[in-house]
Amino acid sequence: MKGKEVSFLNRLKQLHALPLLPVKDRELSPIAGNCEEASAGESFFLVALSGGADSVALLRALIALGYHVEAAHCNFHLRGKESDRDEMFCNNLCEELGIRLHVAHFDTIAFATLRKVSIEMAARELRYRWFTQLAKDTGAAGVCIAHHSDDQVETILLNLLRGTGIKGLLGMQRRNGIFLRPLLGVSRQEILEYLHAIGQNYVTDSTNLDDDVQRNKLRLDVIPLLEKITPAAKQNILRMADNLGDAENVVNHSVEVARKGATRHCNGGEAYALKEVLAYTSPRLLFWDILSDHSFNRTQIEEILLSCENGKDGDDDKMRSNGKMWINEKNVAIISNDVLYVYPREEWNAPLSSFRIPEVGLYILSNGKIRVSIDEKSTSFIRPSKNVNIATLDSDGIVFPLTIRPVLAGDRFTPFGMKGSKLVNDYLKDKKIAPLERHRQLIVTDAHGDILWLVGRTIDERWRMRATTNRVMTLSVV
């Protein structure tokens, strides 16, 4: 059976499935000889080890090829004694092989309930979050996952059933950040033959034999049926994914150019000119590229696209949706003034507080300082400042204490140079101020609640300096 072992290892090398990083046995893994980092002998990889055939084969193959590895096992406590059996098997295997094993325990059901997601999604999130942190803590060069070509076929079919685009039809990537899939080019059968050749046992997850789960329905029912129709069904599906890779490269380049062209400056987030997004050959594709990067789901992306397309012929209210907002766990998307804005949710939700100013003086705020002074105009002629962070006001009639606070719905003022009053939010929208800046806009009011200053923008016309002004109040923020 030695030939099967050598054949499997040679196949991995031929596929260039393994990272080009230093190994102990340069002869067994000649691809490492091309690595500029060959002298960095301390580099190592984490191997996600479940105890099943795939991950055990991956661990044994990496060791045989001379890579320095450590194993990482997740106990999700979903299968009672079976879960503990798997952990014990991994522990015994790593002891036999003389490698370090990292173990994490998760209350997966509680996490799924808290996040309102399926058990499978919860386990996935917990697993990858822990792997990422473990790699960071240990300094690992990457995390090797034991997905193989049969998994790839299942993933492509699942994505197809969900109505995927080109990216989904490509399946899993061989490399995705710190995560690597060295076995993606080999089949489950080759893996089993390799384990048999080296006399290595493994554990079997009973859920793999349970066809209630979508993936297992494909594995046990659908794919065997496809192979009855076309014996080379799996190979053809993989070939299709490879062929689409070139098409995706072309599309990605086109989308990247269009996205850069539509990008506008935005403090604290991202902004895209809708006129240019909608002018692209496929607006839907560009919206997907922008919004899926920020964790928006299919329903939200379609709603945003519809909001824009409904108004592209001139119906401004429909298109802009009056600042309609879409929110997910991480981000906020807003349409305003022909621009799509995307902000981190934590930035949008950052608390804003009010601050009372009882008299003239210097005050320390949470994000800066404000100085309030009053001068007699007769002794010191003061010109209105052109600095937007300084406001010069007619002090007569202004009553302390002042308050600096966020804008509230219904706040009205008389903009500088105008006669009638206007809602502060309408004024900011008309000035095309970005949503986050509007959301975080501060105003200064007096004891009567009258607005004196939109901080950093404009003063209220009622408090402008005039020839009759006797005393000048100066407000400045730094």
Protein architecture, described:
The structure is a single chain. The chain is of the alpha+beta class and 478 residues long. It has three domains: 1-20 and 41-237, HUPs (Rossmann fold, 3-Layer(aba) Sandwich); 265-348, Uridine Diphospho-n-acetylenolpyruvylglucosamine Reductase, domain 3 (2-Layer Sandwich); 355-477, 3-Layer(bba) Sandwich (Phenylalanyl-tRNA Synthetase, Chain B, domain 3). 41% of the residues lie in helices and 19% in strands. Strands 3-2-1-4-6-5 form a six-stranded mixed sheet, sandwiched between helices. A five-stranded antiparallel sheet has the order 7-8-11-10-9. The protein has a five-stranded antiparallel sheet with strand order 12-16-19-20-21, with no helix packed on it. β20 (451-454) and β21 form a beta hairpin. α2 (53-64) packs across α8 and α6 (149-161) crosses α9. Residues 20-41 and 313-320 have low confidence and may be disordered. Its EC number is 6.3.4.19. Keywords: ATP-binding, Cytoplasm, Ligase, Nucleotide-binding, tRNA processing.
